[in-house]
Amino acid sequence: MSVTVDQLEFRTAIRDAIAEELERDPAVVFFGEDVAAPGGVFMVTPELQERFGEERVFDTPISELALAGAAFGAAVTGLRPVFEVMFGDFMALPMDSLVNQAAKFWYISNEQGSVPLVVRSAVGGGGRFGAMHSQFHATWFQGIPGLKIVAPSSPADAKGLLKAAIRDDNPVIFLEHKRLYSVKGPPPSNGDVVPLGVANVVREGSDVTIVSVAKGVPDSLAAAELLASDGIDAEVIDLRTLRPLDLDTVLDSVARTNRLVAVEEGPRLGGWAAGLLGAVAADALHDLDDAWVIATGETPIPYSPPLEDAFMPTPETIAADVRARLG
Amino acid sequence: MSDVELAPGAERGEADGSAEGQTAGAGTAAPLDDPARFVAAFERMVLIREFEQEIHRLFLKGEVHGTTHLSAGQEAVPVGVCLALEPDDYVAGTYRGHGHALAKGTDPETLAAEMLGRATGVCGGRAGSMNVIDLEHGLVGCFGIVGGSIAAATGAALTAKHNGHVAAAFFGDGATNQGYFHECLNFARVLDLPAVFVCENNFYGEFTPMQQVTAGSDIAARGAAYGIPSRVVDGNDLLAVYEAALEAVELARAGRGPSLLECQTYRHYGHSKSDPAKYRPEGELERWLERDPLVVARARLVEAGVSDEELDGAAERAKDHMRRASEAALAAPYPDPQAERPTEFAP
Q1: Which of B126, B141, B184 sits opposite A66 (nearest CB)?
Q2: What CATH number is associated with residue B214?
Q3: Which of B112, B47, B36, B113 is nearest to B79 (CA)?
Q4: Single pTM value for the model
């Protein structure tokens, strides 16, 4: 595939979003481990410190709990911190601050103040990073009222959703799939900001609805192309955010296709896909001829390439599963 | 401020209740540039004591629910620190936080109403005793998780670095064994944040003696290990706390970064409502009661030229204030679940 000059790389989209929001609002600050002078381990944020100065863009100790706590305290006193927790797996460390401090503040303060912070992480398998650098941590947080969870699937969405997240007055957990960083695509077409909480029908179809987020979306689109050659017309929905959840878009689709499959890069038990199926069943069981989940195995993510490849959903396994299910 | 001022000759980590060896000006008559401020501070201390006794009474009557952690005996620390702060400065408190809120300026009526679960509570009854937030008075929160206040103040200090304010964290000796303490002290030092870390060392982490669970039993030395000016302060002496806090606040405002104050004090009640504090050795409470912060503050202020009559008047005003606050809070309605329209997210 040839790349034109108009194409936007996912990692550049992230950097542009942060840069434009730093430019737009003096309250925005950006910090994390190796994000400033080194420019990030995935080279997502180079040159931001040179451009915006050490007071607004800075490197921190490897102290995820302090990062999250500092972001919380800064957010409730007037800054709009964006910080990076390098890998999603490390999000176990700042859990108390995010869950007990940031998420609950708006409600228990009786709406005295909000917590405008964004925590970005590189997530997902397929990079041979092993069990502690590959998880998709969204479901650790999906059951926490007060948090928003965003997982973009394309460069345009990465930019538009991150800008929306930085402007949002609530704590936002932002997941960047590391296998998407080098993906190129068209820049945002309809303005820069993509609202949080609105799913995107990325492919229309009439036989089955495939729902996913992040890298699962391009995988599902590729699966849909494979299915098309078999005469199966799949609709693909990118949820974009896992909390809040745009259930209406899924219900509208299922009302037409009558079949729902949710593709999750993570275990089935306790996953967002199972929760989605439950919500759809509760509201629209009458529309459903079939509904199921494609997930990973119930083990940690393995390291060895053949093991990791077999662990992850792929376009081929998604297509094969849909074919088998539709008979 | 020197790096570490250890209490000379004092056994580390012992809750002996002795004034001897305490640093920070014990025995000297500090000049009071504005006596009325100190009389007002004494009044706040009495108000906190009255508040805690009233909450204790209302808990036993079933009006305060769940659990509650009383700070009677520790009043000099938050009042002394807040006396050194400006109204726009930030503080973060703990689940033993009624004194932190009142010292920073929270209205005792709305605070009592919060304890009672009433609609007029400072958080509309949504927060309760352990999680009070009062942004109008710069209280960014009280935290039910041990050590949470340290992070909140560290973050507020990030903002303060931009707007010229200072942020103070109150926390107990137990919190110095949490990741929050170590991560945030390091973070605040390397970024030179205008933070004042105020450890209320009351010598017990919940039911367990501090020295049994705190390696080295020397909290100020932990701050010094991070290159943070740290000192031991007589936490039952209002003026000693104030002088130490003022020095720390001035350092912070001058752009010279954080300080740690290990304020040694003692809680008169047990850890929480389920704790009769039977683990305390015989005579320990009595020794500390002899150094009750209200008694010490009165003696120090009289020594500095304030009259007993003025202090009696302040105490009466505080008691009357609390009586009225409690009556109003008890008369307030509960929140109506049918009328509540909570939103998950800020718009």
Answers
A1: B184
A2: 3.40.50.970
A3: B47
A4: 0.94
